[in-house]
What does this fold into?
Amino acid sequence: NAKDSGKNKFKFYCSNLNDKIQEEFILENNLRYALDKNEFFINYQPIFDVNTEKIVGMEALLRWKHIKLGIIPPSKFIPIAESSGLITKIGNWVLKNACIHAKKFHDLGIDVFISVNVSVNQLKEGNFARSILKIIKETGIDPKYLDLEITESISMENIDYIRDVLNKIKDLKVNISMDDFGTGYSSLAQLKNLCISKLKIDSSFIKDIYIDSNSTAIVSAIIAMAKNLNIEVIAEGVETKDQFEFLKEHGCEMVQGYLFSPPVDENSIRKLIENQY
Ligand code: C2E
Ligand code: MG
Ligand code: MG
Ligand code: MG
It folds into this structure.
């Protein structure tokens, strides 16, 4: 009997695994046509200067709305886009459209930077720097307003190759931000090595300010360290007034989070920015 139930458990586990594989299979097949079917759109989350509380930048966050499957979160489809190789094309689409969007503000004399997430697979693609140059030319954006967000895990593998690509990007006058800082393995030396101009403290640490004394210490240490390295700091996932006050007190330059605004569509961010002027 015990054997039987063991068998059943195994079966159950198996079918769960199948479900997951099947879901990924379905998503991957649909992801293939998502660009052509215009199923992607971008939301923008404003990034605020801590002292003036004005919008100084915005992060482009990709959204996928499938006609039958509905809205699929990036945490689900980005990994699939990466493993299938589709991320290169999709990533270029995001970059181009985010730059077009930001350029409209610059044409009005509004200086907001645009920050775009980039996967390691895009960097590895070979002619990444060339595709960035192409986008700069096509959209007419001044590259000083463009930030590319890379994640910390990137910096460990193929470090020499990655550094080469990032140097080429820097030569174009585009900025590099370290996203999700604190969750990976990068060292101080690496931040310097990779010419990082901004770092984004991961929301998991911000959430625990005032809850876990370790997080409190980590956040203030990251800010102090970044200051010494001449790297600007953005706190991600700021949800409460207390968190904001703590960050302000410790000299964090910029904040992003639900306390100020969630990611919103193109029209809404335009209104938010225009209302400041
Ligand atoms: P991320 O780059 O760390 O982006 C920040 C995430 O935090 C976003 O989730 C945003 O909606 C969420 N967020 C913002 N403020 C708050 C807050 O106050 N509280 C909480 N709990 N969350 C907040 P989202 O949009 O679901 O994106 C998830 C991840 O997907 C992103 O994390 C990024 O790594 C990836 N992603 C999104 N768009 C792209 C893209 O175009 N390319 C690539 N390669 N990855 C992308
Ligand atoms: Mg990001
Ligand atoms: Mg990211
Ligand atoms: Mg992040």
User: Anything to note?
Assistant: Residues 2-34 form the longest helix (33 residues). The chain is about 50% helix and 20% strand.
